[in-house]
Amino acid sequence: MQFSKIPGLQELKSHLTSAYRKGKIAHAQLYAGRPGTAVLPIALAYASYLMCSNRGDHDSCGSCPNCYRIKKLVHPDVYLYFPKVSSTESGKYNKVLTEALPKFRSFVFSRPYGDLEDWAMLYGHENKNILIGREDSREMLKNVSMKSVEGGYKILFLWYPERMNPSAANAILKILEEPPEKTIYLLVTYNHDGLLATIKSRTQLVAIPPNTNKDIGKYLIDSGIDELRAHQVAKLSEGKIGTALKLANEEDVKEYQTFQSWMLDCWNKDLTSLIRRSEDFSKSGKTKQRSSLNYAISIIRNAVVKSGGLEPAVQNEDERVFITKYSNRLGTNKLERIYLLINEAAHHLDRNSNPRITNLNLSLNIIRILNG
pLDDT value at position 251? Predict the structure, then answer.
């Protein structure tokens, strides 16, 4: 990955390359942004820049052996840690890693703007709670103590550190605080607030902003997307290239109808239907569960925007009509309370709560707000 392959964000790119030229390289850097933004591509481009043997002032060369190996994610001095299935049984970690690593490489090549849900689907474990576990932290400690294979930088790359279980998170605190010479930690997070404060305090924050609609539109057109469609989805993407790619390449899935039906059941206090929904929700798999709640959160957010007198970003006219009616009927106070409830439910699911109970409890709480 090179900086030149990432649209926009010129000020951020210049800041990173300038810091290197001035010798001001933080040993632990936390790349943080919203899912769908260029968090992973920027971190990978910076890793390429650090390791490049023929770097320029503003980018890696893209063609030296180090750049080639970084692009393929096979550089011997770059260690990758990412969420995967648990491997608590003795001796099972290497088997799990051997299965997951080629898939993760494929994921990064094909979906560098993807998120945890995209990875879980490609990985084939969308129904499991994938984590960076204690075994990973042991590998980190081992790899930190080893010398660099090629005598240059050694990079430990953590994707989704917020998915570290508590023992793994605590285990890496000391190596973050006292790293060996020329050892760089690059952490890529999509939930900065979800990280331990002790980890955040030991890392230098690199905030990744959203892209402009213009940058996203051009990126989609260069990727082969029809120009009219590219500009349409760029406006809906909220500055997230990953979201824009999904909108551009997927058929128009009317998720708002499912959400509308759910809210109607809550309004009518239809407990039979809500119990059935909770059963269906529990059978849908973790990735679909997160996706459903994320969509609900986006609908509520747009309704709040509409209630404030602004025009929300919507996928089609039907969704616009629904959001307008929903906003007018509930008002800002109730919308904000429902928004907090759905966020709380998503938080509990991420911590492996029972999905059926979580969904039903959410519906019952929404009933209280709607009818309060």
Answer: 47
Share of the chain above pLDDT 90, in %: 41
Residue numbers of the chain with a pLDDT score lower than 50: 251-252
Q: Computed over its alpha carbons, how large is the radius of gyration of the chain?
A: 22
Going 339 to 345 to 349 to 351, the CA torsion angle's sign is positive
Angle at 113 between CA 107 and CA 117, to 5 degrees: 65
Decide if 43 contacts 16 (C-beta within 8 A): no
Q: Which amino acid is at 2?
A: Q
And the tokens for 354? 């029972």
pLDDT of residue 252: 44
| Residue 8, Ramachandran bin (φ over 0: left; ψ between -120 and 50: alpha; else beta) | left
Q: Which residue pairs, CB below 8 angstroms and at least 24 apart, start in 210-216?
A: 210/33, 210/34, 210/37, 210/238, 210/239, 210/240, 211/7, 211/8, 211/9, 211/37, 211/38, 211/239, 211/240, 211/241, 212/8, 212/239, 213/237, 213/239, 215/7, 215/8, 216/7, 216/241, 216/244
* Whole-number Å distance between alpha carbons of 364 and 369: 9
Cα 245 to Cα 95, 196, 233, distances in angstroms: 33, 31, 8
Q: Nearest-CA neighbor of 223 among 253, 248, 250, 252? A: 248
Please tell me the distance from the alpha carbon of residue 284 to that of residue 149, in angstroms, as a whole number. Answer: 45
Give the model's pLDDT for residue 345: 92
Length of the chain: 372
| DSSP per residue, 211-229 | PPHHHHHHHHHHTT--HHH
What is the distance between the alpha carbons of residues 230 and 340, in angstroms, rounded to a whole number? Answer: 32
What's the pLDDT tens digit per position in 225-238? 888 878 878 887 88
Pairwise CA distance, residues 159 & 31, whole Å: 10
